[in-house]
Amino acid sequence: MPEEIIRMAQKKITQHLKVPLTDEQKKQYSEEIAQAVEEIGEGQNELKFVSTEIKARIQTSEAKLKELANKIRAGYEMKPVECLQTMDFSNGTVKIVRLDTDEVVLERAMTVEERQPELPIEEKGEVEK
Q1: What is the pLDDT of residues 73-100, one digit of tens each?
Q2: HSE-up of 36 (CA within 13 Å, CB side)?
Q3: What is the DSSP annotation of the chain?
Q4: Which residues, at least 6 apart from 109, have a Cβ–Cβ distance to it below 8 Å?
Q5: Which has the closest alpha carbon to 84: 73, 99, 74, 100?
Q6: Is pTM, for the whole model, over 0.70?
Q7: Residue 117 pLDDT more than 80?
Q8: Lowest mean pLDDT among 63-67, 86-90, 118-122
Q9: In CA terms, which of 39, 100, 102, 118 is 20 to 30 Å from 20?
C-alpha cells in the first residue's frame, strides 16, 4: 500500500470571538459610560447656549435688515440736523430752518407760552448797581 503523506500546516490567526468580561472590566466600562453620559450632558448644555447665542445674532441681523429695508422703501431716514429757530414776536410766528440746506422745515404760530418774553435772571452773587 502506498504510503499516504499527510501534510498539515498551522499558523496563528486572529478572530473576533466572545470573551466574557471580568469584574474589573465591567467596573471600568461602567465608569467610562458614566463619563460619556456626563460629556453628553455638557455638550447638550453647551449646544443650547451656543444655539441661543446664534439665535440672538440672527435676530439682531433680521432687525437691522428690516430697518434698512424700511429706510430704502421710505427713501429717507430720520437723523438729528442742526437748525435755526427764529421767534418772530412782531408776527407771532416760529420758523425753523435747516442749516445744511436752508430749507424751512416748520413755520407756525407761537403758543401762548412762547408769546411771553423771558425775564432776565440774575446770577447769584451779582448785584445791580
Answers
A1: 999 999 999 999 999 999 999 999 999 9
A2: 6
A3: -PPPPP-------------PPPHHHHHHHHHHHHHHHHHHHHHHHHHHHHHHHHHHHHHHHHHHHHHHHHHHHHT-------EEEEEETTTTEEEEEETTT--EEEEEEPPHHHHSPPPP-PPTT----
A4: 92, 93, 94
A5: 99
A6: no
A7: no
A8: 118-122
A9: 39
Q: Which amino acid is at 69?
A: A
Length in residues, the chain: 129
C-alpha cell at 50: 451656543
pLDDT tens string 8-44: 878 899 999 999 999 999 999 999 999 999 999 999 9
